[in-house]
Specification:
With about 240 residues, the chain is mainly α. Helix content is about 70%, strand content about 0%.
Length: about 240
């Protein structure tokens, strides 16, 4: 038995030694998928870079609480790791990370108003409490962004709970790992394409004053990922 285990382990080491993703660069479908995801992820990174710059200058109290930043950064980290997972054909893992990103984003976004939101053990109650915030309950536009995030979360939960056969990750994929799957990549890409603009739009509207102090080039990068119907409101030109 130990001989078989040793042989298989040596095969694993050989796989790791020869592992690379170079072949994906020439795949047009892969590049198109990565391009869309990168644009959104980069905008989110730029936003956080600006926020951290202000935090370093001790002007952070003008934005939001320091403990909020930790959650917002983690939500971005989850998006980045999800993005990286798609390179490796790990699509179910990518979806689980997106679910985590939603939870951490909403906790960070709402923690200045719902101080103990991070102690809420029921995700259902967490969404319900956040939805009741004045920011969402009194503004149809804001509520539509929240509902879009909530709907994405519900769909992602199907993968967490393996709701149907469609939500299963076929173990035969290990024989071809990593393998780019256009359909699966598009699904993950659509989630990122929907979620990050919602995150950024909510942050720019709730903490609007600080956004206008960002470097103009960074503002332009961020605004390319904001839905057009919200841009004039963010720029205070309604």
């Amino acid at each position: 038995m130990s001989r078989e285990i040793k042989t298989d382990f040596e095969g694993l080491l050989s796989f790791i030694e020869s592992y690379n993703l170079r072949y994906l660069v020439s795949d047009i479908e892969f590049k198109n998928s990565v391009t869309q995801q990168h644009k959104k992820y980069y905008a989110y990174l730029v936003y956080l870079a600006e926020i951290q710059d202000y935090a370093g200058k001790k002007n952070f109290s003008n934005i939001f609480r320091m403990d909020q930043l930790s959650y917002i950064k983690e939500s971005c980290s989850d998006i980045g790791t999800c993005f990286f997972s798609t390179f490796h054909g790990s699509y179910k893992s990518a979806k689980l990370l997106l679910r985590s990103s939603i939870e951490t984003f909403l906790k960070g976004f709402s923690k200045d108003e719902i101080v103990n939101i991070d102690q809420e053990t029921s995700v259902y109650c967490m969404f319900d409490n956040i939805k009741k915030m004045k920011f969402f309950s009194e503004d149809p536009q804001m509520l539509s962004l929240f509902n879009k995030i909530h709907q994405a979360y519900k769909l992602l939960c199907r993968d967490v709970h393996t709701a149907t056969e469609h939500n299963m990750a076929n173990i035969s994929a290990l024989n071809y790992f990593p393998t780019f799957n256009k359909s699966e990549a598009e699904t993950v890409c659509k989630y990122i394409f929907d979620l990050v603009p919602c995150y950024l739009t909510l942050l720019l509207l709730k903490y609007n004053d600080q956004f206008h102090k960002f470097h103009h080039k960074n503002k332009d990068i961020i605004m390319t990922s904001i839905p057009k119907e919200y841009r004039s409101r963010i720029n205070n030109i309604e």
